[in-house]
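Each field is listed here:
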Amino acid sequence: MDELLPYLLVLGALVLVMGAFTGLARLIRRRGGAGGGLGAALAAYEEAFRATSHASHYEIRAQAERKDPLESPDRLRRGVRRGR
């Protein structure tokens, strides 16, 4: 058991650090306080390890940025007929 103790300590420390980073990432995403660099790092992580959520994130952003299409000019002038 004495030979395994250093490895268990290192593994425990690694789990603790990764858990802290995961909690920090969730907090930053929830509050929206991610700056340009941190936002890009989180996006790169999501692209590498969560490909489906990364793709859906970009689709949601594209939908939010889209504007409603304007009506065609013919519908605006319903009473006026062309060519007559």
